[in-house]
Amino acid sequence: MINKIHSLGGYIHEYQKSVANPQAFWAQQGESFFWRKRWDKVVDWNFDEPKIQWYVNGKLNITENIFERNLYTHGSQEAIIWEPNNPDEESRTLTYSELFVEVNKFANTLRRLGVGKGDRVAIYMPMVPELAIALLACARIGAIHSVVFAGFSANALKERINDAAAKVLLTADGGFRGDKITPLKQIADEALTNCSSIETVVVLKRTKSDIEMVVGRDIWWHKAVDGQSEVCPAEEMDSEDPLFILYTSGSTGKPKGIVHTTGGYMVYSGYTFSNVFQYHAGDVYFCTADIGWITGHTYIVYGPLLAGAKTLMFEGVPTWPDAGRFWDIVSKYQVNQFYTAPTAIRALLAKGNEFVEGKKLSSLKVLGTVGEPINEEAWHWYHDHVGRNQCPIVDTWWQTETGGVMVSPIAGITPTKPSFATLPLPGVQPVIVSNEGKELTGNSVEGNLCIKYPWPGMARTIWGDHERFRQTYFSSYSKMYFTGDGVKRDEDGYYRILGRVDDVINVSGHRLGTAEIENAINEHPLVNESAVVGYPHAIKGQGIYAFVACGELSTGGEDGIRKSIMQGVTKIIGPIARPDLVQLVPGLPKTRSGKIMRRILRKVAEGDATNLGDISTLLDEDVVEQIIDGALVDV
Ligand code: 6R9
């Protein structure tokens, strides 16, 4: 059993303990799990190299903690409840015992394909139970999974496969999303024309799309699994052996392969899941994220399953067949904890109340949000119309790099305030730092959010590039992890996340690096250069505004070019990175030393050209005038 907080006093007590003696605190949390060999030392760290090790020399397998540890008590209970894209298709459930069998069989399949401890397995799949099975099968045999969100393009998939030098790719013939089918295998084939490390592609039949199978490389999932043993001994892992790689965007062009390891991630995902959502045995928990993102890894798969929970996995989208789909699912399965993103709430709010009214939502006890700041209007709608004023909202702040929730209310225990992530979880020591690197103590302060002590779930490195890891997170402020977010601590000591302070934008809860999008735009043959900024968007939170300087505007005129630029980005990264607005400009505002003055572009994109700040270093003021004149938002 994972230790649970039951009261505000209990939270305060645990928090104080965790700061006074982090090692004792995390040792106590570690005790809740099954270790083949106990750790010698709880933590060994410095933020200079940086070196971060938790549960040093502990030996374990995370799947033994999900299965062997839970089977006696939970064997016949549902582990995964799966709701298909189409409400008319039959749903599926897998009990812990059934899931264990599937995981073992697939783990044996992978072993037979020559996958062993430390090998990388790339996963490009729709939201079906086999996706969760794939993750757990990798973990069972010590292979490192690298899930690539099924909305990414062939090019993005290729980059990620090559960066990790994955040996096997797991995919499907296609994926259902609303009334569309994503041709996953076809996209994978395109990616694989340039991936020399891949030896085998395992293809799950899902959409029954017409696909090509490459002889000697591709095998069907069901055929590969057929006849495999239901028993697969777990590989013994060191606490610090990598569990998975997950790519995320940063302020420079290339995506970063964030590496999470086994022991610390296990303790952190299990502890935070049980506490933040106040999960009780028997509850049905539904997180609407895709397993292609960290939220899905930690709070659809690992956290809930470690806690022996019933975790609901949904294949489809919130607005198909209509905008009541989430609420139909909540009522169908009597969901108790529901976790989604502000962008989904805003999209559903915009469709009107008729889709939520009249739905049977009385089973709901806790509502959660993640991915971006939640605006007050969305918070109140969620609270009043979905939660019917009965459910606490947990606004959970965290990142791919943090592995699990960092700042959040404990459901029903921490008093909430709309759009505040409230207080740090036990074991988390946030600090607010000025741009000059000075720690701002006390309340009513605003600055950069850093963390000054390690926690077990934190990333350990960037795959293949530890120096970039150091540089990105540990060089801005001495001896601290820098999150890239701005934050305010109000008069009550509550934290409100203000959004990114670096060149990362957050579109519908998806992190995108502006440089990554610019690189894609610049591939267009007519483009000389470009600058991308975020702008306020009613549904997506931030939209993508691209300022693009072209040479000749001959082919197809301005509209044609704008369209082909958008298509180019979709092809190179994926539809999530497609700019909402493309403004063709005569040039970009630059300083005399040739730096793009993004501040000016951000202001224009926000629709405010009144106060552009100091423009004395600007090379050519006319360019700014022309940009303002041609702006695609009201300035
Ligand atoms: C889990 C996840 C991380 C970035 C993060 C921040 C933003 C996430 C938030 C939030 C305000 C919240 N973010 N949760 N901002 N309030 N509750 O989303 O990971 O995809 O890596 O994004 O998302 O800006 O730095 P990831």
Short synopsis of the structure:
By secondary structure, this protein is α/β, with parallel strands linked by helices. The protein is built from 19 helices and 30 strands. The protein folds into two domains: 466 residues, Rossmann fold; 123 residues, 2-Layer Sandwich (GMP Synthetase, Chain A, domain 3), CATH 3.30.300.30.
Task: List strands and helices in order, with pairings.
Blueprint: H1 8-20, H2 22-30, E1 41-46, E2 51-56, E3 59-60, H3 62-66, H4 68-74, E4 78-83, E5 92-95, H5 96-112, E6 120-124, H6 129-141, E7 144-147, H7 154-164, E8 168-172, E9 175-177, E10 180-182, H8 184-192, E11 200-204, E12 218-220, H9 221-225, E13 237-238, E14 242-248, E15 256-261, H10 262-276, E16 284-287, H11 294-306, E17 310-314, H12 325-333, E18 337-340, H13 342-350, E19 366-370, H14 376-386, E20 393-396, E21 430-433, E22 445-451, E23 461-462, H15 466-474, E24 481-489, E25 495-500, E26 504-507, E27 510-513, H16 514-522, E28 527-537, E29 541-550, H17 557-572, E30 581-585, H18 598-605, H19 621-629
Parallel strand pairs: 4-17, 6-7, 6-8, 7-14, 8-11, 11-12, 16-17, 16-18, 18-19, 19-20, 29-30
Antiparallel strand pairs: 1-2, 3-13, 4-5, 9-10, 14-15, 15-23, 21-22, 22-24, 24-25, 26-27, 28-29
Helix pairs in contact: 1-2, 5-6, 7-8, 10-11, 13-14
The structure holds ligand 6R9.
Ligand 6R9 is lined by residues 248, 293-295, 370-373, 395-400, 421, 483-485, 497, 499-500, 506, 511.
EC number: 6.2.1.1
Pfam family, one: AMP-binding_C
Domain Acetyl-coenzyme A synthetase N-terminal: 13-65
